[in-house]
Amino acid sequence: MLPGVYRATKKDGTEYFRSSITFKNKHISLGSFATEEEAAFSYQFASRLLRDHTLSLENYAGHKVPLAFSKWISLVNFRDNGMYIKTPVYLKKNFFLYYFSPDDYLTFDIDDLFYYSTHSISRRGGHLFVADYGMQVNILSRYGIRNYAVAGRDYRFVNGDNKDFRYENIEIINRFYGVFRTEKEGSMVYEARIHGNGDWIVGRYQTETEAAVAYNKAASVLITKGYQKAYPVNYIEELSTAEYHRIYKHIPISARILALTPRP
Predict the structure, then answer these.
(1) In angstroms, rounded to a whole number, what is the distance separating the alpha carbons of residues 209 and 49?
(2) Closest to 45 in 3D by CA, of 80, 15, 75
(3) What is the residue-averaged pLDDT of the chain?
(4) Strand 135-138 relative to strand 127-132: parallel, antiparallel, unpaired?
């Protein structure tokens, strides 16, 4: 067999070829190929890539490359930074880049390296997900951002770059369901809204925790009156059970909601 190439057989008996390389005592699989020659080409190219610093992240498209782009990133990062990572990550000084293509990448804090070195990111409908414990998890949840939060309303990217997921660049505006920060008579207040027959204002409050509790209270009232059963619940970790119940008991909510006639 040619250097770096191994013959293998599928369950149905079909023969194919695998290629791998060892660099800095690390054994790296390069993929599966239909022919021995293709597998050998991948080995030869990987060997060059791991030693030739003129081959960079930027010139992937300029070469006839027998390697997947994600593998190219992993090998270049290993060459330049001495760390082999299976996902398409390239390390910088205090952050790292997660690549989808040469011109398409996300930026993360170095604190997230372990997570994204073991979790691959996928896109669906403009959202970014990882597979975690058998579920598709939106990466925004790592920042405390709700699944259906709206960029610009519930959170924002401070520097305007919606691909920069460093913690300092993400500002959460509204942490809770049904709670929106708004201006009223020159002051910032937190408005709680809930859906009944249309969107109803529950009330306006000085703090977001009060507004979150008011939303929960309004949801309970609507449920007892026969309205929608699937209202999400705001969990407010900073409040003790006693504090939560005290606020819940005394927080005012819309008289319109309280006066609703129960549905049959």
Answers:
(1) 54
(2) 75
(3) 92
(4) antiparallel
